[in-house]
Amino acid sequence: MTLTFTTGVRTSEGLAALDAEPTRLVETLDGICTRWAESTGAGALTVPPLLPVADLAGLDVFENFPQLALVSSALDVSTAGTDRIGQEAASGHFGAGTLGPAGLALPSSACYGVYLHHRNREVPEEGALVTVLGQCFRNEDHFDGLRRLKAFRMREVVALGTPEQMSAHLERSARFIGTLAEEIGLPLERRTASDPFYDRTSDRATFQQVVPVKYEYVYQDLAIASVNTHYTFFGERCSIALPGGAAASTSCVGFGVERWLHALADHFDGDWDRAQDAVERAGKSLF
Questions:
Q1: d(CA 141, CA 167)
Q2: Residue 232, Cβ density class (10 Å: 0-12 exposed, 13-18 middle, ≥19 buried)
Q3: Higher confidence at residue 192 or residue 212?
Q4: pLDDT over 90 (residue 206)
Q5: Is residue 263 within 8 Å of 222, Cβ to Cβ?
Q6: Using CA atoms, how far apart are residues 117 and 240, in angstroms rounded to an integer?
Q7: Average pLDDT value over all residues in the chain
Q8: Which residues of 7-40 are buried (b: 16+ CB within 10 A; e: fewer)?
Q9: H or E element: which one contains 70?
Q10: CB neighbours of 73 closer than 8 A, spacing ≥ 6?
């Protein structure tokens, strides 16, 4: 069933299509985030839209998020035959016997590609700071307009370096999110959240109760941005080293593009012109 969220936005089965006005708004908002990232010294990075299953397994992705996983498989034409493939395609899905092995996965977060890109590398003394706009995919148990999608975009700014550099990145990110929301006039609440990368052992579960590793910025119970610290988890798993040889720490800030769009549409009562004006004014004020 196709659902109409608001004028200019249509969603169906967790997939969204945007008309010109919401597309322009998204581009304006992402432009502000990108400009802020560049002002902090972040370099732009492009990561693959598909990642090897084995690489993601090394990051505990399938251990922590098996219910969200979506994988990519080629059609086994020689075994299934074109007639069966055509029949299954017409029915709306391919069965297991028609598909070959799935060695690639559709990532659920944009930052995985960043850590894998830096695998077996040494970060410079001043640390590394990169920004990506990633297409993310999650097999959610239900979908809800722009609030919960199967395919969505995430703007992330990722820092790799020392614990001090990670803290500085998180502080900058938190100030930016707060200022951006204030300039737009969008009411956000900052909440402590948990990170599944720290849920698998009692030590880590206890640790994050004492020292929060994730903060979410929430609009009406919907998290539209977050700041996260992973300490040396990804540095250890991807062999990303500091100049002295120790594992690098990592932290990131993420902006859910479609969720921001939902919040803006809701806050401005579906008036794209008002939302556009507010975001443009915020951009001029910030820069």
A1: 34
A2: middle
A3: 192
A4: no
A5: yes
A6: 10
A7: 92
A8: ebbbbeebebebeebbeebbeebbebbbebbeee
A9: strand 70-72
A10: 99, 100, 101, 102
